[in-house]
Design a protein that fits this description.
Strand content: 25-35%
CATH architecture of the largest domain: 2-Layer Sandwich
Strand order of the largest sheet: 5-4-7-8-9
Structural class: alpha+beta
Largest sheet: 5 strands, mixed
Order of helices and strands: HHEEEEEEHEHHEHEEHEEEEHEE
Radius of gyration: 22 Å
CATH superfamily of the largest domain: DNA ligase/mRNA capping enzyme
Oligomer: single chain
Number of domains: 2
Helix content: 10-25%
């Protein structure tokens, strides 16, 4: 679809009635590997986000935040669903992508048409990011939402109990984050700022600079914006038995230890292996084969042994 749209935009340009500015066309063409005779060299079914979808820096102690939490900082619930991006061109919904690796996502445009406004009163190219979430009354709500994005059947997807909540737009359309959230709400989006999300699963609180100029000036690392962070609760772990330790070679060539555990259910996932980082970590925890250990899913994803019980 993006290439068909760029074909049309190119045609209109050469007919003397351009629908995009040169800058907008060049940026979209570059990010989608578009040229007049070729096509994208990406993995089939994937596309590049117009603006990268960064992760959030995690904080477990609000008394020691990455930056001072003053009256100019806004906080919103951190929904536990599936992050996606929406690309609108002159108000028309053109592309919807999963977060993927933050740079490239899976094309789920036709599915997201069931959840988002398909026409906005906006000019130019904008990317709206947000979360597809399921009610927490549904067992394993996060997996339910993420799994729905991979469904082959559009009909089955349309019957899922899912809601899209917007949490940002690029480029920003107001001077402050609060004003932007209200504007998105007025466009027909539910947002984490304007709507009650009590009935949806949450895994923390997001703190960010309200003023966009300050947020942009703070900049980015390779992984996250410096003007926002997620306050996360350090969850209590589940106790199980350390059966063995094996060593594996990672993609970077580093050899690291992995705990082999009695299988245990953590937040809906069966965990039988967990990272142990290095030999120093094993010694600090005084681990022995056959001992009881406490295991968590760090970031709700990566199993990790946190202590000997």
């Amino acid at each position: 679809m993006p290439h068909e749209f760029l074909d049309y935009a190119s045609k209109m340009y050469y007919e003397g009635t351009p629908i995009l500015s040169d800058e907008e066309f060049d940026r979209l063409a570059s990010q989608q590997n578009y040229n007049k005779v070729g096509s994208a060299s990406l993995k089939e079914g994937t596309l590049i986000h117009y603006q990268p979808m960064y992760s959030l820096q995690k904080c477990f102690d609000i008394d020691n935040p990455p930056f001072p939490v003053t009256k100019d900082i806004v906080s919103t619930p951190k929904l536990d669903g599936a992050a996606v991006s929406l690309l609108y061109v002159d108000g028309n919904f053109e592309v919807g992508l999963t977060r993927g690796d933050g740079k490239v996502g899976q094309d789920i445009t036709e599915k997201l048409r069931f959840l988002v406004p398909n026409k906005l009163n906006l000019n130019g190219v904008v990317q709206i990011t947000g979360e597809v979430a399921a009610p927490k009354s549904i067992e394993n709500a996060r997996n339910y939402a993420a799994g729905a994005l991979n469904l082959k059947s559009f009909e089955e997807f349309s019957e899922r109990d899912l809601t899209f909540f917007a949490y940002d737009i690029y480029p920003n359309i107001e001077d402050t984050y609060k004003e932007t959230m209200v504007s998105l709400y007025d466009m027909g989006f539910k947002t984490v700022f304007t709507n009650d999300v009590t009935d949806f699963p949450q895994d923390g609180i997001v703190y960010r600079m309200n003023n966009y100029s300050q947020f942009i000036e703070a900049g980015y690392t390779a992984h996250h914006p410096r003007g926002a962070f997620a306050l996360k609760e350090q969850k209590s772990g589940i106790t199980t038995i350390l059966q063995d330790v094996v060593w594996q070679v990672g993609k970077s060539g580093i050899v690291s230890p992995v705990a082999i555990l009695d299988p245990v259910n953590i937040d809906g996932a069966t965990v039988s292996r967990a990272t142990l980082h290095n030999i120093k970590y094993i010694r600090e925890l005084n681990l022995e084969i056959g001992c009881s250990v406490e295991v968590i899913r760090s970031g709700d994803i990566i199993p990790r042994v946190v202590r000997r019980v």
